[in-house]
Amino acid sequence: GVPEAEVTWFKNKVKLSSGRHLRDGLLLIANVSLSDQGLYSCKAANLRGEITESSELLVLEPPRSLPYLEDLMAVLSSAGTSTRSVLTSPSGTKMTISPGSSALIGCAVDGYPTPNITWLYSGEPLSLQHRLLAAGRILQIQNVSDASDGEFSCLAQNEAGSLIQKASLAIQEYWWSGDKLTACSASCGHKGVQLPQLRCLLDGDEVNISHCKEKPKPTLQPIACNRKDCPSRWMVTSWSLCTQSCGGGIQTRRVTCQRLTATGSSVPMSNEACAQVSKRPVDTQNCNRQPCVEWVASSWGQCNGPCVGPRLAVQHRQVFCQTKDGTSVSSDQCSALPRPLSTQNCWTDICGVHWRVSLWTICTATCGSYGFQSRRVDCVHIRTNKPVLEHHCSWRPRPTNWQRCNITPCENGTLLGGREAGASLGNGALGLADRCPGEPPC
């Protein structure tokens, strides 16, 4: 322009210093970086007017690896402690993981424009069960048991270039181990053994044995241990029987000093050799010091108990426990001894009784449903034939003393009863009015 225009440069509408200006309206940006990206404007102005022109500067940055991925940390915290995670790297990252668990694989890359990420497995597109999270930058494998030996890789691409990063998962195997041994069964001698304990391990840690049920179990053999001569020690036999069953007795046993060798033989030693190790056990001791007791019974009482049969009654006596010197003690102390009887059956003339019945009386009616007849029932002594108290005959059922009779329909609706019937019963019989009070069928 005329006069010559003055040029001013702006970046994102902010004026730039004049030190970067060149002649002929040029602006020099040396060593371009991502921070130089933006909208650049130049304004040319003189006395006659001004004009502004703009240009957008885009700085491309090829994909590059990052040391961490914030999105992965956020997803991992919500997935729980059972989920493992790993970041891919250009050289390849390895992670060991339990079978059946889940894994998160992060592709930590950056670039401008934002790289597009493609996941591969052994160089091929993914076919196993998975999910893509965080705009594809996180691959979630939901069951690592489905993955065979292979390598996961993420391919990051934009207009400036591409980058491949890799990660591999090593699936842990459950396996049986018999490396842990029980304590030795003996400290010396010839019989000490240790038994291997079968354990199911995963990455060196013991887990429930159900995880190893599909694995073949190893053959376990006992391992000899502590096969050496034992120090001298006292050997004792079992105690003999007590010399007394009660009142204080003595029992004995044999005590010797011996040494068990690694070959299993027992070598006699002097008592002094064992005395240096431990005190000599006793070879006698008291036994059965409890007092001697017995059951004592008084003489039988009279045979006058309740009758239980013909001429058969019950008699009683007292039975108690006491010591040999006559001191009464609790019956529990005699419980090991056979206890004498405290009751028994006995013969007595008092129980020689039976039920005596008379003949039935004439029926109180000739027809109808109200006729009955009775008889006398007494408990009498067999020998004297005299009545006694009825409870002496209670060991036998008491015969019935009345019954219904002549239960047939009446032709003219009349029946004979009351005192008229009683008047015709005969000698020794009871009429209805005399016998009936308090008893059916009145």
Task: Please sum up the structure shown.
With 442 residues, this protein is mainly β. It has helices at residues 70-79, 271-275, 418-423, 432-435; strands at 6-11, 14-15, 21-22, 26-27, 38-46, 49-57, 61-65, 84-87, 93-97, 103-106, 109-112, 116-121, 124-125, 130-133, 138-141, 152-158, 161-171, 174-181, 193-194, 196-202, 205-207, 223-224, 233-236, 249-252, 255-260, 266-268, 284-287, 293-297, 312-316, 319-323, 343-347, 353-357, 372-374, 377-381, 402-404. It holds the Pfam family TSP1_ADAMTS.
Notes on the structure:
This is ATL1 protein. InterPro entries: ADAMTS_ADAMTS-like, Ig-like_dom, Ig-like_dom_sf, Ig-like_fold, Ig_I-set, Ig_sub, Ig_sub2, TSP1_rpt. Residues 1-58, 90-170 form the Ig-like domain. One of its GO terms (molecular function) is metalloendopeptidase activity. With 442 residues, the chain is mainly β. The chain has four helices and 35 strands. It has helices at residues 70-79, 271-275, 418-423, 432-435; strands at residues 6-11, 14-15, 21-22, 26-27, 38-46, 49-57, 61-65, 84-87, 93-97, 103-106, 109-112, 116-121, 124-125, 130-133, 138-141, 152-158, 161-171, 174-181, 193-194, 196-202, 205-207, 223-224, 233-236, 249-252, 255-260, 266-268, 284-287, 293-297, 312-316, 319-323, 343-347, 353-357, 372-374, 377-381, 402-404. A five-stranded mixed sheet has the order 9-17-16-12-13, with no helix packed on it. A four-stranded antiparallel sheet has the order 2-1-5-6, with no helix packed on it. Strands 8-10-15-14 form a four-stranded mixed sheet, with helices on one face. The longest helix is centred in the first third of the chain and has 10 residues, at 70-79. The protein starts with 5 loop residues before the first strand and ends in a 7-residue tail after the last helix.
